[in-house]
Amino acid sequence: MAKRTFSSFEIFLIFLLVITTGITVALLSLLFITSGTIENHTGKTLGLRGFPSTQGPPATQSPPATQGSAAPQNSTPSRGPTTTQASPTPSTPEPTLFQNFSGYHIGVGRADCTGQVSDINLMGYAKTGQYARGILTRLYSRAFIMAEPDGSNRIVFVSIDIGMVSQRLRLEVLSRLQNKYGSLYRRDNVILSGTHTHSGPAGYFQYTTFVIASEGFSNRTFEYMVTGIVESIEIAHKNMKPGKIFINKGTVDGAQINRSPTSYLWNPQSERARYSSNTDKEMVLLKMVDLNGEELGLISWFAIHPVSMKNTNHLVNSDNVGYASYLFEQEKNKGYLPGEGPYVAAFASSNLGDVSPNVLGPQCTNTGESCDNANSSCPIGGPSMCVAMGPGQDMFESTQIIGRIIYDKAKELYESASQEVTGPLASAHQWVNMTDVTVWLNSTHTVKTCKPALGYSFAAGTIDGFGTVSFTQGMTEGDSFWDTLRDQVLGKPSEEIKECHKPKPVLLQTGELLNPHPWHPDIVDVQIVTLGFLAITAIPGEFTTMSGRRLRQAVREEFEAYGMLNMTVVISGLCNVYTHYITTYEEYQAQRYEAASTIYGPHTLSAYIQLYRVLAKAIAT
Fold first, then answer.
1. Residue 93 pLDDT
2. Residues of the chain with pLDDT under 50
3. DSSP character at residue 60
4. Are 213 and 383 in contact (CB under 8 A)?
5. What CA–CA distance (Å, rounded) separates 588 from 449?
6. 467-497, pLDDT tens digit by residue?
7. Could you count the other beta carbons within 10 Å of the beta carbon of residue 177?
8. In 252-363, which ranges are continuous DSSP H helix?
């Protein structure tokens, strides 16, 4: 291939972009300093608009996990309470728990966590200029507490109408819970999960990549979110009562498609033959009632991207899964306004990485023809013209149609739920340095995960929301223009990171970028909680369909190996810290958007499977 040379105009463009980027980085540095993003270990400081900058310890200083052991010191997977946190006397008296019954103590709570509805970027599409200009629906945190009859062990699951949970958000929530309840609610038994709406406020991250996508950090929105999450848990804590939990499962049709079907086909044919669809259509639902049969709430897990609302939207809202919650809560809370009433219905995220609600599929908006191809590109106009269409006349109607399909199936499963969940509660948690996990392929061969990096196709976006015009999905080679520009502005990626991520062409070597702060997390927490025969795996990102299937199977097999038979394993997505996507090794080779966004390299899924097996074993033994 002939070496490319640059014209005078291209050289001028590079020079101009270098200068512009330098100014941008300088402004971002100033923004970090003035908005309280820099860690403060001596106490709280006042940030913008008088809101406290409530930062926990920096994630990168957490102790890395040791491979081959259940967890690092002070992060031991355990049944019941750990001893990793101080236990001050709770400022709120513990409710008296009636112990003589069969079932669980159950508490449900809901609180507003909307945050800013104007003058802030929306989180999800990373689209410049997609600012909030009003509100369509409020955003809520929905909390569920389950405790054994004697109150000794308990777990907390919180589903939040936000794009994803940031590490900074989780650490602050845990800190406030510790201050109020001592060691009752801890990092091992509290799961925070984002619904993944792409129409919620941004600005609550500490890592530079997400700060750039958010166009800054907002103390205001951060405080609203933390306060709402904590309040929902407090309400659930106060309302705990003896009750029972029932589980049901069913197939949801007509609500989803696979948005990277060509990547899915890279998985072994023998594996694909075991499944009837290239998406997970199963919904798992928990129904909660008290001992008198009074309905308390539900949690539903179903794999679907809340992107019925397009990247042209400027109204804060909870998208299709939020609409399902609205419908269910309005039915059960007769006479109450939306967001009020005792009944709480959460429609939580699952392995939604390659799943779209835009069921009419990708079409060229300028010609109307299909663009369902490996590059998601149109003959005229390229990838920017290739957009997946929802079932409605516009995005508002599509949101309602998809939300109602989800609601209808949940209602059916809820009304027929009869299998009671019984058994002890347990939890396991581990801090892991995901940039340095040794993965055993077999008894003699190992591979390792990589420092974070984003590939070229990351910049292309998806059929649900395209990215930059110059990029397409499926790029397995870089471009000399963008490589030169990156090298001048950010420095060259090391040969080590380029080699580790192959066949991904590295666009941004985020794991080697530390200014003004680290660009991506290296320390990640993995977590499992069990409720009798139900295991909830808290996933720090977006698993694709087949990735989720492999993880569920591996965790189920690990439980069975140690005597816990017939476990139902649920994947709860977007939990605790955000690490982009997790594809299978085979899907990674295709380098569509999801693979280019698998930041720890081709063996990321294998590493997670290995780690979650350790957690399952810790609970079972």
1. 55
2. 1-4, 6, 9, 12-13, 15-16, 25, 27-89
3. G
4. no
5. 13
6. 877 899 999 999 999 999 999 999 999 999 9
7. 24
8. 261-264, 269-272, 319-332
pLDDT of res. 151 = 84
Are the C-beta atoms of residues 365 and 466 closer than 8 Å to each other? Answer: no
Strands (E), 302-442: 344-348, 355-356, 361-364, 386-389, 419-420, 425-433, 438-440
Report residue 266: phi and psi, to 5°.
-70, -20
Amino acid at 143: A
Q: Mean pLDDT of all residues in the chain?
A: 88
3-state secondary structure of 39: coil
Residue 581: CB partners within 8 Å, gap ≥ 6? 353, 541, 542, 543, 544, 593, 594, 595, 597, 598, 599
480 is catalytic: no
CA 45 from chain centre, in angstroms, equals 29
Q: How far apart are CA 190 and CA 576, in angstroms?
A: 9
User: Alpha carbon of 250 to those of 258, 277, 318, 406, 449: distances in Å?
Assistant: 19, 14, 24, 11, 36
Helix/strand/coil (H/E/C) assignment for every residue in 433-488: ECCCCEEECCCCCEEECCCCCEEHHHHHEECCEECCCCCCCCCCCCCHHHHHHHHH
pLDDT at 97: 63
Annotated binding residues for Zn(2+), written as ranges, equal 196, 305, 542, 581
Q: Compute CA 423 distance to the chain's CA centroid, rounded to the nearest angstrom.
A: 28
Residues in contact with 514: Cβ distance below 8 Å, sequence separation at least 6, in sequence order: none
Instruction: Check 62, 78, 356, 597 and give the catalytic one.
Output: 356
C-alpha–C-alpha distance, residues 367 and 383, integer Å = 13
Per-residue pLDDT tens over the stretch 563-619:
999 999 999 999 999 999 999 999 999 999 999 999 999 999 999 999 999 999 999
Q: Could you give the 3-state DSSP secondary structure of residue 543?
A: strand
Cα torsion through 417, 419, 425, 428, rounded to 10: -80
Q: Are 339 and 330 in contact (CB under 8 A)?
A: no
CB 344, CB 297: distance < 8 Å: yes
DSSP SS3 for 141: strand
Classify 109 as helix, strand or coil: strand
Q: How far is CA 38 from the centre of its chain?
A: 24
Structure tokens at 291: 């001992």
3-class secondary-structure state, position 2: coil
**Domain locations in the chain as residue ranges:** 103-437+520-620
Q: CB within 8 A of 588, min separation 6: which ones?
A: 503, 504, 595, 598, 602
Residues 6 or more apart whose Cβ sits within 8 Å of residue 11: none
CA distance 561 to 619: 12
Q: How far apart are CA 161 and CA 112, in angstroms?
A: 9
Tell whether omega for the bond before 503 is within 30 degrees of 0, i.e. cis. Answer: yes
Spatial neighbors of 495 by CB under 8 A, at least 6 apart, are none
Structure-token match 């997790």, residue found: 582
How far apart, in Å, are the Cα atoms of 507 and each of 283, 462, 476?
A: 37, 17, 11
Residue 265 tokens read as 């086909």
pTM score, whole prediction? 0.86
Q: How many CB atoms lie within 10 A of CB 213?
A: 19
CA 175 to CA 189: how far, in whole Å? 14
